Amino acid sequence: MDKKAELRKKAMALPLEPGVYLMKDQKGSIIYIGKAKALKNRVSQYFGADTAHTEKVRQMVSRVDHFDYIITGSEFEALVLECSLIKQYTPKYNILLKDDKGYHYIRVSKPPFSRISEAKQKAEDGAQYIGPYLSSFAIKQAVDEVNKLFGLSTCRKPLGYHKPCERPCLNHYIGQCCAPCTGKVSPEEYADRVEQAITYLTQGRSKLVTLLRNRMESASDALDFETAARLRDRIRALEKLNTSQKVVQSRIKRQDIIALSQAQGVACFEVFRFTDGALSDREHFFVDPSEDLPAIRAEFLRRYYSMRDTVPPRIVLDGELEDADLLSRWLTEKAVANGERYSVRFVFPERGEQAHLLAMCRDNASERVAQQLNLRGRDVAALEELQKLLGLEKLPARIESYDISHTAGTDVVGGMVVFQNGKPLKSAYRRFEIKTVIGQDDYACMREVVGRRLQDYVEKPDDDSFGTLPDLILLDGGKGHVSAVKPLVDSFGYGIPVFGLVKDSHHRTRAITEAGAELSIQSLRSAFTLVSAIGEEVHRFAIGYHRTKHRKQGVATTLTEIPGIGEKRAALLLRHFGSLRAVKSATIDQLAAVKGMTRPAAETVVQYFQEN
Predict the structure, then answer these.
(1) 3-state class of 444 per DSSP?
(2) Confidence of residue 222 (pLDDT cuts 50, 70, 90)
(3) Closest CA to 189 of 230, 155, 243, 221
(4) Other C-beta atoms within 10 Å of 234: how many?
(5) Where are the beta strands (DSSP E) in 318-436?
(6) Can you tell me whether residue 427 is helix, strand or coil?
(7) Count of Cβ atoms closer than 10 Å to residue 562 Cβ
(8) CATH code of the domain in which 449 resides
C-alpha cells in the first residue's frame, strides 16, 4: 500500500467530531495545522483525488508522512486551539505573516534649531527619541505633518552658528518652513515651534490647541498682540489641517478595512487601520493565492489577529468570509480579554463612504500585486472588478473579443482582438474572411469565426495567437450572439466563459450580457473603462478590415471587366503593383512580366485603360 492510500485509510478511521489536525513530515516537523468541524471528513479530503486541490495543497500532501489530531468540544474550541498552535509552531504551509517589522522612533536633534525626523533605532547622539512605534507608515506621516505644520527645517542648509544664507530654499516660499537658515528666526522662537511640535506628537492635536488657546488669551491680556496673532494663526492651521484630513477619515471612529487582490500567482492583502476616525496605519501582506476566497480571507484573519493585541469593533471586508460567526465570537472574546466592551462584527459595504474606503484599500492591494508583476495597478483593479462582476473562477488575464462587419451582407469579415493583462496585444490580433455563410447572418458568421479559432487551437498549438486559450470571450453583440456562440464554445470542453457587449444607439458599450439578463457595468469605473476600450478596439479592427476588403473588391471588379482578366489574374496584378493606379500606369512589358499574365492579356489591359 502506498503512503497516500495508507494515510487515507488512517483518515477514514477518524471520528466525526470537531478538532485540530497536525500534518507532519518524515522528520516529525509540523508542516500544516488546520481545524475541522468533522475530522474524518476534512482530513480524508487531502488524501483522495487531488484534482480539486491547489498546487500549494498538492505540495503539502506530497510531504506528509503522518498526522496527529486533537479532539475538541466544539468547532469554536478547535478555532481557538488552531490559532494558538499555529502561532506556536509557525508551520510552513499555513499563511505566515511577519510580526517582526521592528520598532520606529521620532528623532528630535539637539538644540538650537532642532530637526524632527524618523529613525529606525535609538543612538547615543544626544538627540531626543519619541517612541517606539510599530508602524513606519504612521511615523512618516506624523513627521511630515509636524514639519510642515510648524514650519521646521527639513533641508540640508546649515543652521545655528553658521553664516546665514542669503536665500532660503523652496519650502519657505510655499509656506512650509520658517527659514531659520537666514537668521531671521531666533533660537527661542524656533525652540517654541519645536516644543509645540513635540506636544502635538506626544499629546495630540486637541491638547495642543487647548494649550495654544490659553497662551493666546494670556498674550492678549498682556497686550502682546503680535504673539497672540501668531498663536491664533497656529490654532487656525491646526483646525484647517483637521478639516482637510476629513477626506481620508471615516465617520466610524475605530475599524480595520481589509481587501484582497490576486493575479497570475500573486496575492496580497492590504489593511487600513482607522483610529479616532483617521487612517492611523496601513500594512500589506503577500500570501499564496487561492481560488477559495472565503477560506483564504478567514485564514488571513486568524493569522493577522493572532499577532495583534487589539481588535477593533468593526472589520470591513471586500467579500464573503468562511466561518464568519466563529471568527466574530473569537475576536470578541479576544477584545473582551483586553478590557474592551463590544462585539466584533464584519461589514461588507456596497455603497457609501465605507464602500469608497474599501475600494481605496483594494486599489492599494492591486497596486502591490501590479508592482510584483510589472503591470499597472489600474489594469489589475479593472480585471478584478470584471472577474467579480461576471463571477469568473480566475482573473481574465487574456480576453478575446470578436466582431462581424459587412455591407448589406457583402464582403463579410470577422475580427479578433486580444487584451493581455488589460492591455491590447496587437501581435495576437487575427482577421477572418467568412467562408461558409452567404448573405447577412451575423449569428452564423460569429459561430464560424469563433469555431475556426478554437479549431485552430486544436490543430495549431504552436501558433502565437491561437496556441493560447482565452480566459474570457466577449462578443460584440447581445443575447442572441451569446446564445448562438456559447453552445459551440462549450462543445470544445475548455470551460471558456462567453459574454456579449451590449451597445447603445451610438455604438458605445453600456452593459454586458449572458444568454439571460444584462449586467450593468457603468458603476464599476475600472471595469467599464476596460470593457469599453475592448468594444471600441474590436469594432475598429473589424470594420477596418471590412473597408480594406471592400475597397480591394471594387478594384478587383474593375479589372475583371477587362476581357481575359479573371479574378485570379486581377488578384495577381493588384498584389504585384499594389494599386489600380499602378496597374493603369504600367507598360505592356511590365504587365507581361507578372506571373500568370501573357503578352496578349497585357496588351488588352493597356488598350482597355486607354479607351476608358
Answers:
(1) helix
(2) confident
(3) 230
(4) 21
(5) 345-347, 398-407, 410-420, 423-424, 430-433
(6) helix
(7) 20
(8) 3.30.420.340
Rounded mean pLDDT, 453-460? 86
Same domain, 66 and 129: no
Last residue of a domain, one of 505, 537, 569: 537
CA 56 to CA 284: how far, in whole Å?
A: 21
In this prediction the pTM is 0.63
- In DSSP terms, which residues pair with 68 in a beta bridge? 22
CB 502 within 8 A of CB 518: yes
Domains: count for the chain = 5
Task: List, in sequence order, every beta strand (DSSP E) within 75-179.
Answer: 104-108, 116-119, 128-133
Residue of 1 and 185 predicted with greater confidence: 185
The arithmetic mean of pLDDT across residues 369-396, rounded, is 85
pLDDT computed for residue 161 by the predictor:
59
- Short-list 399, 535, 391, CA closest to 470: 399
Note whether 404 and 527 are same-domain residues: yes
Q: Which amino acid belongs to residue 302?
A: R
386, pLDDT greater than 80: yes
Q: Is the pLDDT of residue 243 over 50?
A: no
> Is the pLDDT reported for residue 313 higher than 90?
yes
Question: Is 273 inside a domain boundary?
Answer: yes
The domain boundary, picked from 225, 248, 271, lies at: 248
Same domain, 69 and 118: no
Quote the percentage of the chain above a pLDDT of 90. 28
Alpha carbon 202 to its chain's center: 37
Q: Give the 3-state secondary structure of residue 125.
A: coil
- Do 213 and 261 share a domain, yes or no? no
Q: What is the pLDDT of residues 484-501, one digit of tens each?
A: 899 999 999 989 999 998
Whole-angstrom distance, CA of residue 607 vs CA of residue 612: 9
* Range of weakest confidence among 285-299, 365-379, 560-574, 585-599: 560-574
Residue 99 belongs to some domain of the structure = no
Of residues 141 and 575, which shows the higher confidence score?
Answer: 575
What's residue 319's pLDDT?
A: 92
Distance CA 138, CA 249 (A): 14
Give the CATH number of the domain where residue 79 resides: 3.40.1440.10
Model pLDDT for residues 567-600, shown as the tens digit of each residue: 778 778 877 887 778 888 888 888 888 888 888 8
How many Å apart are CA 187 and CA 164, to the nearest integer? 13
67 and 158 belong to one structural domain: no
Q: What is the pLDDT of residue 247?
A: 41
Taken in order 350, 352, 357, 360, the sign of the CA dihedral is positive
Number of Cβ within 10 Å of residue 36's Cβ equals 22
Which value, in Å, is the radius of gyration of the alpha carbons in the chain? 35
- Domain CATH code at residue 586: 1.10.150.20
**Residue 600: all three cell numbers together:** 496578349
Identify whether residues 108 and 242 lie together within a single domain. yes
| CB burial readout 256-275, b (16+ within 10 A) else e | bbbbbbbbbebbbbbbbbbe
CATH number, residue 326: 3.30.420
Same-domain check for residues 505 and 430: yes
Residue 229 lies in a domain: yes
* Segments forming the whole domain that contains residue 401: 391-537
More confident residue, 449 or 571: 449
Domain presence at residue 290: yes
User: Are 117 and 214 contained in the same domain?
Assistant: yes
> 524 and 376 in contact (C-beta within 8 Å)?
no
